[in-house]
Amino acid sequence: MNTKFDVEQQSGKHPNPEESQNIGELKKRLQKLELENKELRHQIDMRKKAEEYDELSIASFKQFFNSFSECVFLIDIANGSIIDANKSSISLYGIDSTDEIIGSTVLDLSSNVEPYTAKEAFSYLSKAAAGEDQLFEWQAKKKDGQIFWVEISLKQRIIYGEPCILAIVRDISERKRQEATIREDEELMRRLIENSPVGMHFYELKDNGDLIFTHANAAADQILLLDHTPLFGKTLEEAFPYLVNTDLPDIYKRIARQGGVWRNEDVYYKDKSIEGAFEVLVFQTQERNMVATFSDITSRKVAEHELKLLNSELESRVEERTAELQATLERLNDSNYELTVLNEKITNDSQKILQLNEKLLATQDELKENIEAKNKFFSIVAHDLKGPFTGFVGLTDLLAKDTDELSVREIKKLSKLANNAANAVYKLLEDLLEWSQFQMHNLPFTPALFDVHELAFNTVFTFNDMAVAKNIKLKLLFEQKMEAFGDRNMVVSVLRNLVNNAIKFTDQGGCVEIGICSEPQSNYVCIFVKDNGVGIPEEYLPKMFAIDRDYKTSGTAREIGTGLGLVLCREFIEKNHGKIWVESCEGKGSTFYFTLPSSESSISNSAFSEQ
């Protein structure tokens, strides 16, 4: 017999589930033994305590009687009734006082279920009265009818000068529950062992060193095709002689003596009709006892051997195929090198084409924007020049043809109208020139810190005459210095356009105000121009700053606008990293707001570079 051994001592490794079950069985057996030993010691104590009663005097007996922790009865020998009971009986039987049971019999406190009947109780009492000490278990009954287990000790003694039976009653319900649990666990363990698919051999080590074969489960008979019963009681060497020349007997005896676990997954055994490979696990069940569990793994070993041969054959084929693929790979590498060179050339050409396409797309976008800007520009020129020039030509034609027929007053009136038309055309040309320069990026942009108050004050001064002519109050609502960062000329143009529009669309006796928001945004200055003029219809507010808006109207004194003023305001403010918006209510007036950075640090340097 050949064996491969792998001893595993209990050094931190956890046993498998089978080991855990057997160790659990050992623990339960130890618990049962400890319980039985404890019970035996207690019975000895009870006998000693009962004997102590004989030595007590009548005077001290009553005190000791009531101080005793266990229930004690004094029973009349003649009729079996209880003549006295100590205080411990109150809690044991669930009564209010000992008076409730004095005068009753032991049978009154019993379950009266076979075999705990009057006949059995009389038998125990008779033997005790005859001088035979009795110790037995009994089913007692509490006042509320609850049945529980007690252990009763009966002795015939002379108490108070009269012979009686001394009964000591102890509640053993917990012990009975533990015994039932142990019996259930033992039965469960027995079923697990007998129904386990793993074979089990049980041994006991004797004092002379012999390892006796004591038991085998059903699986052991099935696996080894052997009836083990005739082998019970024999030594390991007698039961299994083919193990004599192996290390297994010494290993088994060491485990039975010292404990620990031994496992081997490749034990070969041959004995008469038995031949095969086994997986073996050996461990101690209790002191000087051990079990060897085993499983037949012959089929698995045969399969592993066949698999090993198959893997060897596959490895040979893989090596041959690998050599063929390596040769093919070398040929492919040569071809790949040529393709790589060609791909690099194609990639370089593709990158050049992509760069040219990107430049072409950028040029197309720029051209499209320029065309759209020019289309807007010419549309504005065509539309906004036509009206003023038509009026101007008509007035000059009238002056030229009908001069002799016109009075001086009429000529002055027509001349004034012609002058207004000419000024409107001039203002339009100025706005168009400024807008076109901005669109073509020819308008200078020089941002710097400037005083908003100074700029607003100059604007009020510039438009004062125009406001006086319409009897409009022009107010500057702040006097303190307020700095902002931006292109001064652009901001001047914005403020003049907004003040000019406010005066234009405000009736006689109205008011126009220039001020600073009371709660400016962080790092920004908010300026507003407010009037109480005609206001703007709500549906036109979203497109007030768009170049293609279709809302245009003359002032309250029929002043003519260019249509480009608010467009320039929006583009100038956005160029200076601000925002512009309007709030208006038709018939109540309008308020135009715009913001500017309070310092250069309020905006990023990249924002200027993008401009």
In brief, what are we looking at here?
The chain is of the alpha+beta class and 611 residues long. The protein has helices at residues 17-52, 58-67, 88-93, 118-129, 173-195, 218-224, 236-239, 248-258, 298-401, 408-439, 452-462, 464-469, 488-504, 565-575, 605-610, and strands at residues 7-8, 71-75, 82-85, 134-141, 147-159, 162-171, 199-205, 211-216, 261-271, 274-286, 289-296, 447-451, 473-476, 483-487, 511-516, 524-531, 580-585, 589-597. The strands form four sheets. A six-stranded antiparallel β-sheet has the order 1-9-10-11-7-8, sandwiched between helices. A five-stranded antiparallel β-sheet has the order 3-2-6-5-4, with helices on both faces. The chain has a five-stranded mixed β-sheet with strand order 13-15-16-18-17.
Radius of gyration: 59 Å
Tell me the helix content: 40-55%
Tell me, rounded to a whole number, the average pLDDT: 80
The helix/strand class is alpha+beta
The major pleated sheet works out as: 6 strands, antiparallel
- Quickly count the helices: 15
What is the approximate shape? elongated
Estimated share of beta-strand residues = 15-25%
Identify the strand order in the major beta sheet: 1-9-10-11-7-8
Low-pLDDT stretches are 1-15, 605-611
Count of strand segments:
18
Q: What distance separates the N and C termini? A: 96 Å
